[in-house]
TrEMBL record:
Keyword vocabulary terms for this entry: Dioxygenase, Iron, Metal-binding, Nucleus, Oxidoreductase
Ranges where the Fe2OG dioxygenase domain occurs: 106-244
Annotated localization: Nucleus
Protein species of origin: Uncinocarpus reesii (strain UAMH 1704)
Protein name: Fe2OG dioxygenase domain-containing protein
């Protein structure tokens, strides 16, 4: 049985300590080969075989939301995740004590993003709708996640809206994390609340090495990156969160009928 300890104001499982990225503010954990190649293949088959209406197409990527999108009040309608998103990922979360201290003691929401070469996402924060812990499984290809310190209100608005007029848009990220296929990245604590994250819109990631990638010594296999760069391929992420506000469908219908 794993022991537990407090890291900042958030509790995590003691068994995760060996995966902590020491060069980051509290707290991030990186686990290479969190799932097997067979697991990865099953997930890919499920994700790519869902009906097309399940995909939401954005200007820079497409995504799926399970079991559903949040309402305007950042509330999730109570519904279980499908089995293929729970096994084996959530069962392994339980073994490691991930989400053990969240309100529902397990993730209840999964966002699946597909990033083709050249696609990315602007620096952003996950916000207050979720318990401050994010667990992301990467499949199909590697990618670099950029971490930015939060800025003043004007700059934060620019990152949110994409309007960088008059803003220092060329600022470099404070930290960079390399996410391999089949890996798990967990962010929580101050890293969740005080920093933003994004993925650069590029066809290749470069300047990769122990001096630039904060989890380099935890990467399972650095061979594909031994020349300091790699050409991007299509990468898919599965981001697990615990939505704080959950409503039974019946309660939601009563609220709508009162309007």
């Amino acid at each position: 049985m794993s022991t537990h300890y407090k890291e900042g104001s958030r509790a995590v499982a003691g068994s995760l300590e060996q995966y902590c990225i020491k060069s980051l503010p509290e707290a991030a954990y990186y686990i290479p080969d969190f799932i097997t190649r067979d697991d990865e293949e099953r997930l890919l088959n499920k994700i790519t075989s869902v009906p097309l209406p399940r995909w939401t197409h954005l200007s820079r990527r497409r995504l799926q939301t399970w079991p559903s999108a949040l309402t305007n009040s950042n509330t999730l309608l109570d519904s279980p995740l499908p089995d293929w998103l729970r096994s084996p990922v959530v069962s392994r979360f339980t073994e490691l004590g991930i989400f053990f201290d969240s309100p529902h003691r397990a993730p209840n929401h999964v966002l699946i993003n597909e990033y083709q070469p050249g696609q990315g996402i602007m620096p952003h924060e996950d916000g207050a709708a979720y318990y401050p812990m994010v667990a992301t499984v990467s499949i199909a290809a590697p990618i670099v996640l950029d971490i930015y310190e939060k800025r003043n209100d004007e700059e934060r608005k620019a990152f949110t809206t994409g309007d960088f007029s008059g803003i220092h848009a060329n600022d470099k990220p404070r930290y960079r994390i390399l996410q391999e296929p089949r890996s798990l990245l967990i962010t929580t604590g101050k890293l969740y609340t005080d920093y933003m994250h994004g993925i650069a819109e590029t066809t290749s990631d470069s300047d990769l090495g122990p001096d630039t990638i904060c989890n380099w010594d935890q990467v399972g296999d650095t061979t594909p990156f031994e020349h300091g760069s790699y050409e991007r391929q299509t990468r898919i992420s599965l981001t697990y969160r615990d939505v704080l506000r959950v409503s039974k469908l019946g309660n939601t219908m009563k609220f709508l009928n009162k309007r």
